[in-house]
Amino acid sequence: MRKYGYSQSNSDHTLFLKQSQGKVTALIVYVDDMIITGDDTEEISRLQEKLAEEFEMKNLGGLKYFLGIEVARSKEGIFLSQRKYVLDLLAEVGMLDCKPADTPIVQNHKLGKYPDQVPTNKERYQRLVGRLIYLSHTRPDIAYAVSVVSQFMHAPSEEHMNVVYRILRYLKSAPGRGIMFANNDHLVVEGYTDADWAGNASDRRSTSGYLTFVGGNLVTWRSKKQKVVALSKAEA
What we know:
Blueprint: E1 7-8, E2 15-20, E3 23-30, E4 33-38, H1 41-54, E5 65-66, E6 69-74, E7 77-81, H2 83-93, H3 122-135, H4 143-149, H5 158-173, E8 178-182, E9 189-195, E10 207-214, E11 217-225
Antiparallel strand pairs: 1-2, 2-3, 3-4, 5-6, 6-7, 7-8, 9-10, 10-11
């Protein structure tokens, strides 16, 4: 890719970019699958021809499905979801017919590590939470709940597993929910952030959360427990 004039992204080493005459071409690769996109149609065609000389390739046309992420286009924009991924996960756990939950986690929960907790199957817990972490790529609505359950991967209890099951019941209520990228005719960058103060019941650390919008579209989000104890709300 560098030989063809592309630069490798510092934030994601699987992403390669090329800018020419105000137009951008991007390639992202995962093992033997790749996406080529951009607004320079001539460069995209040239890149496909060059790559075909190096590797045996097959053009699958417009992007519809990639690594469990479904892509749908309309006049309004591009919609990303993981509906099949959610349904497959629910089927794997035997919860396709479960009763849906309205929220992914109970408000003001006191989840933590306590001496009287009953341990649960560690491998199953880690596998389910790992699947939920990947699902968070298109479901910012479960980001906080998943960040909470991921804190107990090394020694999960039945109480922690019940929260994982609640997240799955929440997903059952709307498996096709996802992210919409609309053309809003502007590229204004907006950011929102907040933190609870001493929200963790075990170590009194705060949890931070942020959202970033570009052109009115959500592009980054995160929920994570802070590494140190904050002494005040302002500090948190």
